[in-house]
Amino acid sequence: MIEAAFKGRLGGFDLDACFAVPASGVTALFGPSGSGKTSILRCLAGLTQLDGRLSVNGEVWQDARTFVAPHRREAGYVFQSATLFPHLSVAGNLAYGEKRAAARRRGAASQPVLDRDAIIDLLGLAPFIDRRPSDLSGGERQRVAIGRALLAAPRLLLMDEPLSALDAMTKADILPYLERLAAVAAMPIVYVSHDIGEVARLADRIVQIAGGRVVGCGSTADMLERLGLEAGVPAFEESALLTGVIASHDTALRLTRVDCGGQSLTVPPLDLPVGQTIRVRVRARDVAIALQRPSGISIRNILDATILTIDAAEDAVHGDVVLGIGDARIKSRITREAMAELALKPGMPAFALIKSVSFDGRRGYTARDPETGADAR
Amino acid sequence: MIEAAFKGRLGGFDLDACFAVPASGVTALFGPSGSGKTSILRCLAGLTQLDGRLSVNGEVWQDARTFVAPHRREAGYVFQSATLFPHLSVAGNLAYGEKRAAARRRGAASQPVLDRDAIIDLLGLAPFIDRRPSDLSGGERQRVAIGRALLAAPRLLLMDEPLSALDAMTKADILPYLERLAAVAAMPIVYVSHDIGEVARLADRIVQIAGGRVVGCGSTADMLERLGLEAGVPAFEESALLTGVIASHDTALRLTRVDCGGQSLTVPPLDLPVGQTIRVRVRARDVAIALQRPSGISIRNILDATILTIDAAEDAVHGDVVLGIGDARIKSRITREAMAELALKPGMPAFALIKSVSFDGRRGYTARDPETGADAR
Amino acid sequence: ANADTARIAVASNFTSAAKALADEYAALSGHAITPSYGATGALYLQISQGAPYAAFLAADQARPALLLQDDRAVPGSGFTYAIGELALFSRDAAAALGPDYLKQAPFERIAIADPATAPYGLAAMQTLQSLGLDAVLAPRIVRGKNIGQTFQFIWSGAAEAGFVARSQIADAGAGAHWTVPSSLHEPIAQDAVLLDASSVAARGFLAYLRSPAGRATISRHGYATPE
Amino acid sequence: MAALLEIWPAVALTLKLASVTTLALLVLSTPLAWWLARSRVRWKEGVAAIVAMPLVLPPTALGFYLLLALGPDGPGGAVAGLWGGRSLAFTFEGLVIGSVIYSLPFVVQPIRNAFQAIDNGMLEAAASLGASPWDAFWSVAVPLARTGFLTGAVLGFAHTIGEFGVILMIGGDLPGETRVASIALYDFVETLQWGKAHLLAGGMVVFAFLVVLTVLLMDKRGRVRQ
Amino acid sequence: MAALLEIWPAVALTLKLASVTTLALLVLSTPLAWWLARSRVRWKEGVAAIVAMPLVLPPTALGFYLLLALGPDGPGGAVAGLWGGRSLAFTFEGLVIGSVIYSLPFVVQPIRNAFQAIDNGMLEAAASLGASPWDAFWSVAVPLARTGFLTGAVLGFAHTIGEFGVILMIGGDLPGETRVASIALYDFVETLQWGKAHLLAGGMVVFAFLVVLTVLLMDKRGRVRQ
Ligand SMILES: Nc1ncnc2c1ncn2[C@@H]1O[C@H](COP(=O)(O)OP(=O)(O)OP(=O)(O)O)[C@@H](O)[C@H]1O
Ligand SMILES: Nc1ncnc2c1ncn2[C@@H]1O[C@H](COP(=O)(O)OP(=O)(O)OP(=O)(O)O)[C@@H](O)[C@H]1O
Ligand SMILES: [Mg+2]
Ligand SMILES: [Mg+2]
Questions:
Q1: At what angle do helices D92-117 and D44-52 cross, to 10 degrees?
Q2: How many CB atoms lie within 10 A of CB B155?
Q3: What is the dihedral of CA A290, A295, A300, A306, to 10 degrees?
């Protein structure tokens, strides 16, 4: 567990944040600009000292009497603005933490070593490995900062919008790596991001911050459902998670079928073994409702559903319909016109239509083992 | 017109970029990290001097004999990393360019003045207007940098990923403002962004950069169609634009109907007059195909279409189907399974199904007058 | 006579005597004398670069002679105004100073002024030579650039003893001293020259130095006066 | 009391000299430091080294060469001739010139370092906001180099107060005109007037301490938090 | 040739003194500058002002007070007593002490400014990568303060070469032991030996010019481009 509670004033800003999350997987700090995400991350790293407590895996890093110095915390930090050492080349920057980690390791039990070449390769650092940071583009700098933090082999990785200056393709390369890293290297990641897609993809749980306080904390599935109602997430991105088990792969047509409470979902091919439990993000705006099962249609996923609740305010543009699919629930966002025309009512049976390609291979994501993936409280 | 051609070496990087775009509306520079976007922007501002030519509205800013000094170009610049003056408060930073613009204006014909209070309000700068930049969060800094550039009342606005550190809600507030500004203030904007959604929303045209060269240039509509095939845009975002005219508003159900080549599209309410020409981005993955017109379904937009081309490589996950809708064309991305099942063939009539909420109010966007919105070459 | 002012350049070792003489002369004649103090060498350089001094009271005979030779001074105005007396000085009042003290050498450091630049230093070296001690004591000698500094070496205790001007001891009071017999070294003659022939005040002041009253004041400050 | 009266003219002159010299040093050093920090010409480090050279000569020797330069036969004499003077030696102006030359490196170097440390992006931002290079220099570079200026001012001021060899040589110890406190102190020490010497030395140190402390605290209060 | 031979011991001694002093100055200034740049205690500006105070006294006066301090009755005598000496006056060690005190502000201030200019983020990044404060100091702060160190070294070195009043006072002009080039030059000037004086002054300037130029070019080559 990472148990954190910080309280204090930073200039004119009051921070009073308290949360406890498992010390594994990825925890996202999510909140609007100026809500205190960076401040919390700094407290976790020991770079800002406020009153409070902090323990990681039972080890006390801060309490009334203790304050472990930042360099003893072995907390890697990717800063919001890449703070590369200007006097060192890219290679020198990468080696900085690596050398010190190696020296530490010599004393202690040997830890799994991150593969330097793999990281350089993944982040595409090779073309400018001998250059000074001043000669890099914004995105290149950010990638070096990520590489540097990873190579220091931290026990906790703190990342403050590490991917914000990167294009979609580069992001798409790095995200799965981080994902795997969090699992394989047993290195919990606390991740700040404004990109709800990134968060949904990467995070096991979300700590929602507003005005220096924790206003919500829970598993990504729960939080994504809830976040739509709150400030900070555009309606466009509201979504729910479905849990299923991989049932089969169709290699010819390149599809994967997922068994979801007895019904079959078709998604883009996933490179995961049959039987693996996965979670799939379904955005409310991607779910249509039909009263009869349509035929001659390209939409692959037509699920038996029951209408659970209907929420359509008079002045709203859309209405939200919550559908029960087996035990799970997904949300459909449709126009109020359609709602009226179909005369939807709670309890009514219906069909949920989800275009299979909505589960983009890059955005569908795997659940880790149930324990670490569990909600924090 | 903005006619630019730059050629030269920056460290080990060869830049050889040449493009011509109308000096109005928003031009997006789009390309992967390290492709040279910032370098081009710096050449436009005169901050980097390479060989080449540059003229803006016929005024020569650079050629073999001329090089207009940066401060005489009146080119506002929002830097990739906010370079606020650390010795001035936020208010001082904002006033810096404003004062100088006012002094300039006194000599020349009076220009439209940007409303200081409106900008402070829009960007939410009021809470920290008296603070030093060092006491701001990352997003706050970025907002101040945008405000500072706007208040200098530039004749050309250069923005290097100005919204990357901002959360979706803040972005959603600022984007329409920039959009309006480009039109109203007759101030062309050259905009660097990695977010294809932002680009599609804001840009009239896209200049695609790779390896220091211009590899594509065209109207946003054309480029979005093309970009899917190239590196730099994840398949997930590929889309086409439909042009239509606002036909009517349904205030009770809060819907707008758009006439699109004789057929009616239902979109979320738009605050635009009837008769206005608008463009709507339709993502390929949001378009489903049906052979019969489905009934009892929540999907609002069921358009008569003709299948024009089918593209389904053996090893691809999806197939792309281009549909003709009147004169316009949209793309539908469906699984190869569905393609086979429906036995689609070019020339076949079909129905294009588009969930109306796909046109999110925040992402549907207006076309400016046809001339300025036209393709650059 | 109308009251006149004159600036005169005075070698630093003669500072307190010059002050007293200027005051006496002012009371007597109504002319004001403002002395400027410095090392003889530096004053000479300044005078040759046009420094606005009307007269020069040097610590040696060489620089006034040079000025006369260069036509920088009024011809025939040079004369010896004081003869310095060399003294061996120690802060330790109980020290039995004299030739035996130098021979026994119960000290680590002995201070003298630089023989190359300061007349008192030259006289001190001559004294040691006369006593046949120059080679023996050479490694123990520390040198000040002028006798002011030499005195400070002793006064601070950094050197246990040293050769200074008797005039300084008159100023300082405490400690023990031995006035070196003039037979052990060549006389330390200090010459003065008139630089500005038109300065009534300066001309008068130089005359006052030779008057009985002036000579009395000079010897009160620890100098002999020429016959 | 009498002692105070006696040294007052020297003290007043010292204050005047130190103030004028510090001002002149700042005026002179600012463009020089800027040029050294920003120019791309190869020989600029040569100029930087030359600026440091007066330090290398003992003050009296430097003073001697300055005396020759300022004297009636040197360029200083020619300049003085313009307003009917004979030479710049033994004048207050001459003292200022000598002090400036002698203290220049202590002022130029810190300001140069401060200019050099300014991120180019700051000046680019200023240009993009319509500030001419001249405007940006005053509105951005100088405020950001604040600490360098204050350090230069402190060192230049303190060094001028304590300066002595050069001043004695080119000034000639003329009471009320070129006899500054350091020379008076020298005289007191030379003539064993310990009481006055301690008083003057103590006074100079205390006064300078207060001035320097004030300047340093000014810096602290206004320092840019980056 | 004969002139060269005559001044050689003084020149060699000067080089030794300037080198040792510069080294001692850097060693001493580094922690002091760091503390001044980073500490939060209120009275640190007082310490900074005190460091500048030796500048304010004319060298001979400062030299006299130092003479008292280094002499048999002062702390210097006590220290010298440890190895059986009588005092630190008139020794090479004494010269180094005097030169260090006199040049300290020129070295401390530029280094302090350089330390102060270092973005805190750099040290935080180092800590997050596992560097202890000591480690980060050497691996990040010192390299980033490079220009400050070089400026301090240049000023300290040049000032020590030219220093004269203090050295004369506490050195006692012992040939081969404490007679440095600046004293020899003073003698030549005083005794009107112009030829030798010009030769020595020219030599000192040319030599120092080369040393300073080398250091400044070193800085230029290795300067951090931010
Ligand atoms: N030294 C300070 N003085 C006053 N206010 C401060 C100071 N430091 C931070 N703040 C304020 O604290 C709040 C939280 O800052 P923080 O950097 O943690 O925000 P954030 O959530 O990381 O925002 P962003 O997404 O924009 O980076 C901000 O409103 C900021 O203005
Ligand atoms: N001084 C330099 N020396 C060597 N290479 C340089 C220098 N400046 C820039 N480059 C290289 O030029 C290329 C283009 O840089 P630029 O900053 O224009 O990229 P960009 O498209 O803005 O990328 P990003 O999206 O990451 O900011 C990069 O590969 C960069 O490494
Ligand atoms: Mg932040
Ligand atoms: Mg860039």
A1: 130
A2: 17
A3: 30
Q: Is B112 in the pocket of ligand 2 (CB under 6 A)?
A: no
Pocket lining: A163 vs ligand 2, CB cutoff 6 Å: no
**Res. E21: pLDDT tops 80:** yes
Question: Is B355 close to A285, i.e. CB distance below 8 A?
Answer: yes
Neighbours of ion ligand 3 (CB under 5 A): A 38, 80; B 137-138
Q: CA torsion sign, B160 to B166 to B168 to B170? A: negative
d(CA C47, CA E178) in angstroms, rounded, equals: 31
- Which residues of chain C neighbour E87 with C-beta distances below 8 Å? 157-158
Q: Which amino acid is at D80?
A: A
Do D151 and D47 meet the contact criterion of CB atoms below 8 Å apart? no
B164 SS3 class = coil
Q: Which domains does chain E have, with CATH numbers?
A: 2-225 (1.10.3720.10)
* CB B65 within 8 Å of CB D102: no
Q: In angstroms, what is the span from residue A37 Cα to ligand 3's centroid?
A: 6
- Contact criterion met (CB below 8 Å) for D150 and D215: yes
Q: Provide the mean pLDDT of chain D.
A: 84
CA dihedral C40, C42, C46, C47 (to 10 degrees): 20
ipTM above 0.85, yes or no: no
E1 C-alpha to center of ligand 4: Å?
Answer: 64
Number of residues that this document lists for chain C: 227
Residue B296, number of CB atoms within 10 A of its CB: 15
Whether A42 is in the pocket of ligand 1, judged by its Cβ within 6 Å, is no
Distance, in Å, from the CA atom of B89 to the CA atom of D143, rounded to the nearest integer, reads 13
Q: Neighbours of B (≥3 Cβ pairs closer than 8 A)?
A: A, D
Short-list C175, C199, C167, CA closest to C77 = C199
Q: Chain E contacts of D119, Cβ < 8 Å?
A: 226
Residue carrying structure tokens 């000579």: C215
What is the distance between the alpha carbons of residues B238 and B332, in angstroms, rounded to a whole number?
Answer: 10
Please give the DSSP secondary-structure letter assigned to residue D140.
Answer: I
Q: Using a CB-CB distance cutoff of 8 angstroms, which residues of chain E are in contact with residue D158?
A: 52-53, 55-56, 105
What is the DSSP track for E55-92? GGS-HHHHHHHHHHHHSTTSHHHHHHHTTT-S-STTSH
Q: Whose CA is nearest to atom 13 of ligand 1?
A: A34
Å from CA of B102 to ligand 1 middle? 32
Q: Which H or E run contains A47? A: none
Q: Has residue A265 got a pLDDT over 50?
A: yes
Q: What is the pTM of this model?
A: 0.84
Lowest mean pLDDT among A24-38, A122-136, B154-168, E210-224: E210-224
Q: What share of residues in chain B are helix, strand, coil (percent, to 5)?
A: 30, 35, 35
Nearest alpha-carbon partner for A209 in A33, A34, A30, A26: A30
Contact between chains at D128 and B87 (C-beta distance less than 8 A): no
Compute the distance between CA of residue D86 and CA of residue B26 in angstroms, rounded to an integer.
71
In one-letter notation, the amino acid at residue D62 is L
Q: Which domains does chain B have, with CATH numbers?
A: 2-233 (3.40.50.300), 240-368 (2.40.50.100)
For residue D113, the CA-to-ligand 4 centroid distance in Å is: 29
To 5 degrees, how large is the angle CA A266–CA A269–CA A272?
110
Task: List for chain A the helix, strand, coil content (%; round to 5).
Answer: 30, 35, 35
Task: Report chain A residues whose CB lies below 8 A from the CB of E149.
Answer: none
Ligand 1 site, residue A11, Cβ cutoff 6 A: yes
Partners of residue D18 on adjacent β-strands = none
Is pLDDT larger for residue D179 or for residue E27? Answer: E27
Assign residue B253 a region (left: φ > 0; alpha: ψ between -120 and 50; beta: otherwise): alpha
What does the pLDDT look like over D79-101, one tens digit per residue?
777 777 777 878 888 889 999 99
Which range of A252-261, B103-112, B364-373 scores highest in mean pLDDT? It is A252-261
